[in-house]
Write a structure and sequence with these properties.
The protein has three helices and 42 strands. The protein is mainly β. The chain has three domains: 127 residues, Immunoglobulin-like (Sandwich), CATH 2.60.40; 340 residues, TolB, C-terminal domain (Neuraminidase, 6 Propeller); 82 residues, Macroglobulin (MG2) domain (Immunoglobulin-like, Sandwich), CATH 2.60.40. The chain has a five-stranded antiparallel sheet with strand order 9-34-33-32-31, with no helix packed on it. Strands 17, 18, 19, 20 and 21 form a five-stranded mixed sheet that branches. The radius of gyration is 26 Å and the shape is globular. The N terminus is likely disordered.
Amino acid sequence: MKKYLLIVTLVIQFGIPFITDALPLPLPQHIRYISPLPNARYVSTTSPVIVRLDENVDAATVHAGTVSLFCSSGGYREATVKISDDERTLIVVPVQPFTNGEVVTVMFLSGVQTVSGRTIESFHYSFTVTPITVPRGKYKSTVDLEMAEASALYAAAKTDGSHPIQSDHADSPSLITLPKDFPSTTVLKEDRPETGLLFLSNLDYSNTGLYSPYLMILDQSCNPLFYRKMTGNCFDFKPQPNGEFTFWNQGVFWGMDSTFSINQTYQCKNGISTDAHDLQFMANGHILYLGMDVQQIDMSSIVPDGNPEAIVLGLVIQEMDRDNNIVFQWRSWDHFNITDATYLDFTAGTIDYVHANALEVDTDGNILLSSRHLDEITKINRETGGIIWRMGGKNNQFTFTNDSIGFSHQHAIRRIANGHVTLYDNGNYHTPQFSRAVEYRLDEKEKTATLVWQYRNTPDYFGPAMGNVQRLRNGNTLINWGTTNPSVTEVTSEGAKAFEMTLPEGVYSYRAYKTDKALLPTSVSANIETPHTFLLQQNYPNPFNPTTAIGYQLSANSFTTLKIYDALGREVATLENEVKEAGYYYAQFDGTRLSSGMYIARLTSGGKSQTRKLLLMK
């Protein structure tokens, strides 16, 4: 105790810039979790420090100096200290970003108490900030790389021809007149499927230019009950437990209310790109995100002939509380080796070594993570951040029973009602290549994974990228085959097809979900593709720091500008400046380089103009 008090006194009085010794593990008594970890590298310049206690904190004992940050580039760094809605997690946010490459020392002072009166002893530790901040513009999500891979595979398959898709179902006439660029949906099989509606969004690999990206909700006969033409590809369109509908587009997740109006945006914080693969709303009101962290790493120090300036894509999981504070952060840099990846060229200029594609909150509150390029399902302790077990890949801890091949480049890990897990086995490195839906019974103590059910089509379907599996209420299983046709199959527990549909050749869906029709409002209109009004929506969030999303809608084709002005009327950013078709649009405004204050967004199109006030608070 005296040592820590002396260190604090020296730092404050004499300006000692940083401390080099780090916190030993395990953590001090009464501390359950900290982030960044001791000796962590590649930490974001805006990363918060998170300290979780083993019981609720006495808020009266927490003040601005409870946790102090000391930086090797310039001594004390001012920060704010918040208490999360769980009442036991402290979030320390630096007022100004850290400096690239510097060492940051965290000083936790004594005096903080829990509600039971226990005092948390002082401790300190250090971490290192990323040496270089790599621009995020090239990759918005690891799904960009998966799409490029799928596009190349589709182009190669076209040279070999493709098998025709046969239908034993008479196509039902559409309930509405669809736009010419809307992809047709063809029912191939219908034999008493589970009732419900299909949520999906199309991705066009056909290179015909015939199809635009749409969000769509289809009825039992694949007639659209809802569709909306989008700007750019959309991913993971689905209903959430709170009644919202979410989808990823242009770098963030968007939330729509029961009238299908945009009312929220959801995105990672601290310089981490929001990955398109998954977004999970939790029962306690928190939200789990997958994020992509791009770092420049000297791979020549890791593998022979490695690129000394390789761009390596890491994974970050962020859990946000109801006040949008990060209360849990898990980074692949701390737990996975880059060489844990399977089938990758570690001498390449760009290395996507994890490629996470699914998060699942397990029944015990911990996290199941699917990492495609590791061929691995990882269970993560959400309380401490430690790895509980690893299944599949180079670090496999499980014995597979009734399944000699395991899974390969999988998607969509899910814990289902009977306690088993399902996933979509893309099968990229099976011989021969084929995709399937699988269900395992896991013995997490003895580390056994027993294959209790699977569906493999005859002849084989092979979707090399994307895809998902969903166990339905009646015991049927919905399979979205990803980058292949047909698109969606529903099978019974005995393996009989109850439903099958397809999009046009070369048009795919990242995921498909079937959900209860009761989730939809009764007032849904089939065609709400084109807005009837010109509207600039209020940005969200507002106030914001440093980014915010601005939604707008155009009722007619016209030259459109969306500009940002400061309080003196000076233009500080142009977000749109081109001819736009009628439709719904979303733009992001990044105020990183601007000062706190009031700004004005002005939308002008077709002789009409609207403005909104934006408040940047740093």
